Structures are given as structure tokens and as C-alpha cells.
Fold each of these.
Amino acid sequence: MNAHVQIRNLNAFYGDNRALKDIQLDIPRSQITVIMGPSGCGKTTLLKCLNRFLELNDGTRITGQVLVDGEDIYAPGVDVTEIRKKTGLLAQRPYPLPMSIYDNVAYGLRIHGIKKGRELEAAVRHYLEVAGLWEEVKDRLHAPATGLSIGQQQRLCLARGLAVEPELLLGDEPTSALDPISAQHIEKRLLDLKQQYSVVLVTHILRQAKRLADYVIFMYLGEVVEAGPAHEVFEHPRQERTRAYLEGQF
Amino acid sequence: MKRRQLEEGFFKVLMILSYALVVGILGLILVTVLVKGLPALNLAMLTQTPKGGYYLGKEGGILNAIIGSLYLAGGATLLALALGLPIAINLGAYLRKSRLAGAVRLALDVLWGIPSIVYGAFGFTLMLALGMRASLLGGILVLALLELPILTRAMDEVIRMMPAEIEHASLAMGATRLETATRVVIRQTLPGIATAILLAFGRGIGDAASVLFTAGYTDRLPTSLMRPVASLPLAVFFQLGTPFPEVQQRAYAAALVLTVIVLIVSLGSRWLAGRLSRFVIR
């Protein structure tokens, strides 16, 4: 397997509470990896370890290694902003920035040094197209982002995240706040995007996992129970707990 | 069932009464100032400085105090904002709920509670030690000290109310905390910051005790930072203290002017906050 991310002996703590226990994982490149498991199993915590977001919570601590392209993102001296630039994030609920639709996408570009008008305009248009939002917003680019529907807002967040050219896309149940049609839009985008990006998706919707996943990680109580190619895990789970979960027993 | 409905009704009446009390007091103050001040208010009051014999009931106006108060409160608010905004951002976006943040908030809250006469006395002592005389600069410095905790804590509360996810969205794109603070946090909280500024300005322009020793009083228009300057609260205070009814009436006119200034700033900042909230995420 061509691993994009390698996780070695990863432990995460909230205070004294050990939320992740000795995680060993490889996340494949240019595929959709789905992390599933019951609530409280550590899915989101694991996701937050991939873009160094866990440390934004007070009292958290991490031991072990997360290697992205072979480089440990927790090594001393690593530039956190560079790590985060390389990982896009789609949150559970879309939170646009308090600015216009255009500026939402231009924000990341400006921060990372693209300031020329024409270059910026072309890039904003490109990423809005990639996110499948351009046609709907091209006539009101300078209107507040809050005027969009929640589904459109999530696609705006996708465009905004893609604009800084990440290599890894993280999604924390990105369709859970959306209506079915908007959710479909996002799912379709993710399927299109996996050619160029490695996607890691947390979901508790089993059917969504089956629709999207190339690679599946099943977690329970802070441990990885089973990880493997989607068809293998879904059709022939090796672990009893995975089987029970897939059959809807918990 | 009956008893619960009685309770509900009783507390509803209580709420309406306390609301009526607040509105009533505001109305009474406005009516008093209007009735007593309006007859004495004329163009000369607003456009002239006190002439000889003004305090005996002769000609002149309170332009010196109007301009002086605007300079004092305007300067102090700007200074307090320059100091307070970085503190509020540091509290809200960097320190958040840490122990240090708690200590800083406690210090600001204690400062907020200190009576303004104490600020005045403190400022006066300091000025004596530095060999300064009562002046516009002294008044601005002490008023800024008075406004700083109000402004900072009000902004801090607004920043803390902001959903963390908005900040996270910016950080997720590889923005630094400073970029996030200046480009996202401030934009999101601008309406609240405008309200905080108004609150501080209102407190500053209305305060008499802190400028009594530090800014002094003069019948002239302010020309220099190092010279004494007049202010509206002191204009009210001095004129009300004279034995002449005409002059006392002018005190109410000065109070009316002060009230109108605060009202204008208040409505202006409301309007501004409305304009600024166009992009705010709820």
C-alpha cells in the first residue's frame, strides 16, 4: 500500500483520560478512508491528530508519531501552519468566515501570498467550480457568505479548504448537518476529488461509509479494531466486534 | 394547575413593572433635563465661550466645555482602544480559559469597580510627582485608565462569545493566530466592539471626578495638550453650584448637551453595528 499517512504508537489524552490507545495505522494515498465506530470511540480525536487540531483544546496531550509523507508532524520545530495548510478540513457544521463569498475563498490564498487581483480571481473561480458552487454564486460573489443555504455553505467551506492546495482532506461527519440532496452533492465532490487528494472521513452513517469508502478503519473505545480495504471489511470482517457493528448491534 | 398560572401571572407583572421602572427613570431624567435646560439653550450657548460675567448670568456659552469634553473622551477612548484591543484579543484568542487569563480578567474587573474619584486622585498624585499641571493630556490619560477596563472586558466578552469553529476554520487553512485574530476575529466581533467603544466613551464623557484635578477647567478653547481644558460634567457642576437661577438653568442646558452627545454616539454606534454585522456569522 502507498501510505500517505503513517500513524505509529499514537496515544491521545484529555487530562487523564486516554482517548486513543496505541494507534498503528496506514492511511492510503488518493483513496477515501472512512473512520467509523460508535460515538465516543475516538474517531474525531484521531482526525484532529492529523492536522494538529487536538492541541487547540486545553489539557490535551499526545504521544507517538504521525508521519505525513514520512515526516513526523509532531517533531519539534515543525511549523504548525505548514502542516495545517497541507490538510483541508470539513467540519460537522459549515462555518463560513465573516466575509463575502469571494473573500471566503480568497482568504487562504491571500494568507499564503497570492495577492494579485487577476490571479486571485481566477483561483477563486476555479475552486468554486471544483466545489460545484460557481454556477449558483457567480452573480453574488460579494454578498455575505451567511446568505447561502447550509448545503451551499458546506461546499463553500470545501472550496475555501481546497484553495490552499492541501494534499490531505479531512472530513468530520461533513454531511451530518445537511439535507439529503446537499449531502449527495458533497459525497459526489469527495468521490471526484480522491484522484488528487487523500480523503479521510469520519462518519457514523454506515450506508455513507459503504458508498464512499475505499479503505475502512473501525474503532471502538479508543482502539483500532480493524482496518483494511472496504470490500474486505464490509464483506468479511475478521473481528467479531466489527461484524456486530456492521449488523447494527451497537 | 391554578397556582402555577397565578405564579406565572405574578412574575409577568413583576417583569413588566421593572421594565416600566427602567423606562420611567430614563424618561424622567430626559424630561427633567429638557424642561429645565431647554429654555436656557440657545445658539450662543453652543457657539460661544464664556464671556466676562458669564457665571453671574451674563453672555457667553459652553463651547469650551463641549469641545473640551469631546477632546477628552475622544482621546481617552482612542488611547484605551489602542491598549485594550490587544489585551482583549490576547485574552480571547490566546489565553482563553487559562489561569493567567483568569488573573487578568480579575484585575480588570477590580479596576472596573474602582470609583472614578480614586482614578482622579491617583492621576493627580502621579502628575504632581512628574511635575505636570492639570491639562488635556493629564485628563486624557486618567480617563483612558478609567475606560480601559470597561472597554477591554466588554470586548473580551464579545470575543469569548464567538463560536470557536470560526477561529478553527481559519487555523485549518494554515493561518497563524495573529492572522486569525486580525482578519477573522475582529471582523466577526466588530458590532460588539463598536458597542464596547460606545460604552467606554459614554462613561468617559460623563465622568466629572476623574477630570476635576487632572484636566482642570478653563473658559478658553483647548489649544494645547499641556493646557487645562474644560469639560461638560464640570460645567454642570460649577454652574449648578452658583446662587444665580439663570446660571443654574444653564447647568441643565449643559447637561442636556451632554445627554444629546451621548445619544448621538449611541444611535450612531447602533447604526454602525448594524452595518458591520452584515457579514457576521451567527
Note: The mean pLDDT of chain B is 91.
Amino acid sequence: MPESGAERLEQVFRDAGGPLFVPYVMGGYPDIDASRRHAQILAKHADIIELGIPFSDPLADGPTIQAAGQAALDAGTRPSDVLDIAGELRDGPPVVVMTYFNTVIAQGAREFLGAAADKGVAGIIIPDLPVDEAAEVRDAARAAGVALIALAAPTTDDARMAEIGESAEGFVYLVAVTGVTGGEMTMDDRLRALVDRARRHIPVPVVVGFGVRTPDQAEQIGELADGVVIASEIIRRIRDAPDADSADAAVDDFGAGVAGALRP
Amino acid sequence: MSVNMRFGPYGGRYVPETVIGALDELTEAYERYREDPDYLSELGVLLGHYVGRPTPLYRARRLEEAWGIDDGLWFKREDLCHTGAHKINNALGQVLLAKRMGKQRIIAETGAGQHGVATATASALVGLGCRVYMGRTDMQRQRLNVIRMRMLGAEVHPVDSGSGTLKDATSEAIRDWVTNVDTTHYIIGSAVGPAPYPEIVADLQSVIGIESRAQMLAETGRLPGSVVACVGGGSNAIGIFRGFLDDADVALVGVEAGGEGPSGRHGASLAQGRPGVLHGSYSYLLQDPDGQVAEAHSVSAGLDYPGVGPEHSHLRDIGRVSYVNATDEAALSAFLECSRMEGLIPALETAHALAHVRDGAATLRAAGPVLVCLSGRGDKDVDQAGAALGIDASA
């Protein structure tokens, strides 16, 4: 029996000895080859790679990720193309794919998760699948050996945190802000209390994301949580680069900067 | 009484975790207030004195003769509601709920602008700030309603993503709600979205069916043979159907947007879609094999939506309602016929139901009197329909 995705993820947290860096790459943005390169570059700095499969109507995403996803779709990106990228990252840090529920059920949860497992995917994040709707997908994910990564939010009360914690595998993705991706978090007492609350109720590692933009912010989060996700900021740097080489360099610099801030 | 979260396998709450608490809060509030005498009396007074309910049942004698409907063609006159469509029934009910829940701000999405106008109106009435999300394409084709919303004090926020239509406006409204959920109530305009919205909207619109069933009995001494309504998200349809679901002999017919016809673009989710998740509920959906949501098309902004309410999906599967469609062209010609033979300019959405009554008259006639939900009036459509039909104001 090969190691399950959940076991691989948990192992990474055990081995890290510090907060984990989880950068996000939108599969197919600005094109398939570039996103593969960006993922490979980030793999040098990252502990886990979050790989986005674009969806037409991403409700949890702000304008930056929406536009990147739409560009990827306009370029003809399909879920299988993104899973292929995951397959090529097999020798690097574990890959967690992020997509919306309709992408999963369009193929059938079992088929989709089976295909993901075949490409070595360790986990899946589905931001529009709350814990109470997740039973069927969780079973399919367990059968495939892929961890279903649950999300918790500032508006999640204690009882629900505990419910999320009960079935959590791999880690829990704690949303730092009441809002969509791409805003800006502020490290304040409210966020400290939120992370503290999540850690009390959730037995697996807690990774914080949404609105984290700078190495400094990552470092602040790292003092409280088990890891930090950075997504929109990486896409902004790719988007604003004048050409493909500078985009690669920008991704490399940023990845090195955040990794350095998390592990001085 | 507890609120329905599912209709057969359809419905559910497929939304970001951030708004789950607010959906729970809304569910509890609705369970409480829908039996609360104070809430019901405030809503009842407004429906009577402000909206103009009960709306009349009208017999369209010239059209019934032209279309050969011997047992009578009856219109449930939702076009006579204040603001010009049935949408106000839901908007008022939800605004009164929001006020009781202590919310300070209202948001809504709109396609044709009727729900936006209704929500702007209801918000003005109770003194709550209101922002309406509307696709850029729809703002152009329903220009008059944009002006109305702004006159009513609402902020109309253009949405450029996707095709700039109802689907994109709904996504953007949900994102606003995710961000401002503590202070804001989101009034969804159709019987779509995450639970408990489809049930709340259907419940608030069921007044259409309850009134028209009693009116048909009073006027004709019998139930209609068939009830016909247009379906985008499906709020006027579910509202009128709910009055007749238990009357097994009454045929219920929902008319979706056939758009450009069989080989072109359309909005017929129930006829040509397959189940999937959009905007928080599991229901029939126009999508590609990868689950990417397809762009719908209809001449009417209100039917230009790739999804449909979950209760309609269930009613389709169990065979209680038959869902058909009418093309842009058929709807436009029915729009003109109704205007010229009855002196009633219907909304382009409503014109789809009329087109089916005309084109399906042979079948409908056999079942007895035909009742149509005349869901809205067409003042908002005069620019667009005029352009399509070659009617303008030049001397």
C-alpha cells in the first residue's frame, strides 16, 4: 500500500520544523508551459505546491485569480492538462490541487480523484464544498488516497470548527479574511484569535491563506500557524512581468524571498 | 416548520465556508418569521396597499380566439404589481426579513433589471442602502431599468466578467456577500442559489399560485387544464406552479429560452443541460464536458441564464412539470401579438410563455382553460424589442 496523500502531507509538516510555504500556481496561466515552469521554479522553495484547475465561475476568488483562470480557459486549458503538470512534479514537494465542485462532479468524483491520484496528487481543496456537503467526495477521496483539505473561515463558529476538525485530513486551510482571494490581510488581534481558535479545535496542521502578499506578512503568519498560502500576489507578479523570462525570474525571487522569511 | 434544503437530489449549499453561518442565520430567521404574526401582517399590508395584490385574473378574449383556445385563455396579471413584475413579492418579503435580522445593507443581482428595481424599491421603502450587480451587456439592453434603480437610490454596479449577463452578476453579488456578510443581506431574485434561498423565494412567490387557483375557481368554477409560465431561474413559474402541484389533472408547463433555435445558442438548461453546481445549488446546468459553465443566450435578459432553480430540476425528473422552449423569434412575435390584440405589452421573458401557448395551442386546448403567468410588463423592453421589430420613434 503506497503512502496516502494525507500521510505524505502530514509527513511534510512533521519534517519541516517550521512554518510551511505553500505557493499557488494557476494551471494554464498564462499558458500550460509557463505554468509548468512556474510550478517547477516554486518547487525549489516550497513545501507544498497548490495547483489551481481553472473554473468558469470561481465564487471564492477575487479579480486576479478570476482573470488568470479565465485566461487559462480561453487558452484551452483542461483539467487533465493541469493534472499532467502535477504528474511532472512528482519528485518535488507534494501537490494539492484547488478547483471548484462542478469540475470534480462533471467527471464524477471517483473518476476525477482517481485520475488525480494517478498523477501523484496528495490533496484537493474545493472552496465551494463545505463540510456538511462533503461526505460523498470525502469517501471518493479516501478511496483514491487523496486528502480532502477542508476550509475554515473567520465566520466559522467553534462547534463548526470542531466538526471540520473531526474529518480533517492533511491540513486545514484557514481563510484569513472575511472575503474572497486577493485582498489584503492585516495581522491583528482578530486574526491572532482566529488562528488560536482554529488550532484549539482542529487536530491537523492549520495553514493560513487569503490576502497574504509579502514575505513580512508570511513571516508574521508563520509565527502563529503551521503554514502560509500565497496565491494572488504570485499571479500579479507573473501578470505584470514584461516577458516570460522576467516572469520566471519574478516567481523565483518572490519564492526565495518568502521561503527565506519563513526559515531564516 | 423547517425549510426545505433539497428537492429530490437537487439544491444544497455549495458555497464558500465564509457564508455558511449567514445561511444558517437566514434559515433560522425564515423559519421563525414565516409564522410570525407581526411579520406576516406587515408583509400582507404592503402586498395589499403597496404592491396592489391580489393581482387580477384577466381573460384574454381576442388572443384566445386568434389562437383557438376554446375553453379560455387567462392571464394572472403580475405585470400590474408595483414596479411591473412579480419580483416585488420576493424583494419585499426579504427586505422585511433583513430588517428583522438587523442587516444594514442590501445587495442583489439582476438580469432584466426587474429584480433590481424591486429590490431598490423595497430598500428605499424601509430605508436600507442597496447595491445591485448587473452585467454590462444587460445594462445596455435594459437601460431604462438602470435609470429607475438609480432614481430609487440604489447603486448599480456594472459587471464585466464573462458575458456580462445574469450569471456574472450573480457571481459578483455572491462575492460581495462573502466579503460583507456580517452587515449585508443578499436578496437573490430567483428560486436559485444555496439553500434556503430557493425555498424562501418559492414561498414568497407562491402567492401567485394561491391567488390564481382561487380566482380560476371563482371565475370559471373549475381549475385550469394547464398553467404556463416562463422559466429563467424560475421564480414566477414556481410561484404559480405551487398553487397547483397537488392538482394532478392540471398540466404544468415551463417555457425556457430557446434562443437562436435548435442549432444555436439558448438558455434551455432543463432541456439540454445536465446536473451540476452553479451559484451554490445542484441543478440542471448548461456546461461543457469539463464542467465549465456555458454561456446562455436569450433575447430576454431575464431568461439568459445557464442554470435553473433546483425545484424545477426535481419537478422535471419526476415528470410533474413539462419543460419546453420558445425561440427569440417566436417570443418577439408573441410580444407583438399580445401588444396589438390585448393592449398589453408583456415583458420579453413573459412573451416566451405566450409564444408557447400560441404554438402549442393544439395540445393545451385539449386540456381545458389555459392559465398563463403574465409575469411582467414590457416597458423595460421597448428599446430592444423596437429595434428587433423595426419600430422606432422617428417621424
Note: Chain B touches chain A at residues 12-22, 161-162, 167, 171, 174-175, 178-182, 276-280, 285, 287, 289-293 (CB under 8 Å).
